[in-house]
Amino acid sequence: MKSSIRWRIIGIVVLIVIVGIGSLASISSMMIKDKTVSAVVGQSEALVKQVSQTMDSFLQGYENSLQSMALSDDVKAFAMADRSYNSADDKVYRKQLANFIASYPDASSIYFADATAVTIEPHFDGVKEIDATTRAWYINSMNNPGTVHWTSPYIDQSTGNSTITGSITVQDGNQIIGVIGVDILLDSLTTMVSAIELGYDGTPVIIDSEGVAIVHPTYAGENISDQDAVVKVLQAEKQSGFIQSSTGQEEQIVVYNKIPEIGWNIGAVYNEQQLNEIAKSIEKVIF
Questions:
Q1: Coil, strand or helix: which one is 276?
Q2: 120: part of which helix (H) or strand (E)?
């Protein structure tokens, strides 16, 4: 009888210990998860804003140069000159275009275009087949003269690569006489942004206002506006913050910052399961 009572007491004590330690493990795990997510979000918000400022400065350099070129008397004179390839006038103005490419190595090409022809550096024979008036960069600039505009990604005819274009009108007084444009390959932006170390296997991304991926490890150049995370970021009223989303069986945390001047959204994407790995390892140790 005494032995039976003893084992009952031992059983109860063991049960209490197991329940206590189990509760400790679960509560500790939950607290660590919350702290980890909070710390990552806090660090990423500062980092994403820094990336936003870097990208803004990067594009601003191009915008300033395009605006300067658009106001140049040289481009206005070239618009009225013999623009056929390798003509005397073409050779003179092409040197300025070549100097731009040399100064901005991330630019793949620069050009001056009007309704009749396109002059591009580096030159390629297919340029004669391009109707600039049908291109987004030309239309954007003609509809909003005097301001630099950036396109969504598209496949460039001369390189076959995903590209974005910054463009601005060239005006002689109130008359628009053409458009200057510069192409930047998405590979250049991807290399620049992907070099950022986020930790926890986080991924930096850039999405434009239409949901097209400018920088993305998988969908660069594609419209992903139907993805849950993208929908939530585009609909977010705050300029910066974080959202939680589901992609199939994967839970994600996305820290974002909007650049309203160009309509871009800079983000850091984390797999929530990856963030919870530390909590899970500690939970195993406790058990």
A1: coil
A2: strand 118-121
Over residues 255-282, the pLDDT tens digits come to: 898 888 778 898 888 887 776 666 566 6
CA distances from 92 to 48, 78, 87, 178, 182 (A): 43, 9, 9, 18, 19
What is the token pair recorded at 6? 């003893």
8 A C-beta contact, residue 153 and residue 169: no
Return the SS3 of 216. coil
What torsion, rounded to 10 degrees, do the Cα atoms 8, 10, 14, 19 define? 50
Q: Which residue has the tokens 């650049």?
A: 259
| 129-151 residues labelled b (16+ CB within 10 A) or e (exposed) | ebebeebebbbbbbeeeeebbbb
Which residues are 223's β-sheet partners?
212
Extract the tokens encoding 174: 């109130």
Would you say the pTM of this structure is higher than 0.70? yes
Q: How far is residue 279 CA from its own chain's centroid?
A: 31
Q: How many CB atoms lie within 10 A of CB 273?
A: 12
Give pLDDT < 70 ranges for the chain. 1-3, 22, 24-42, 248, 275-287
Gap between the Cα atoms of 127 and 110, Å rounded? 12
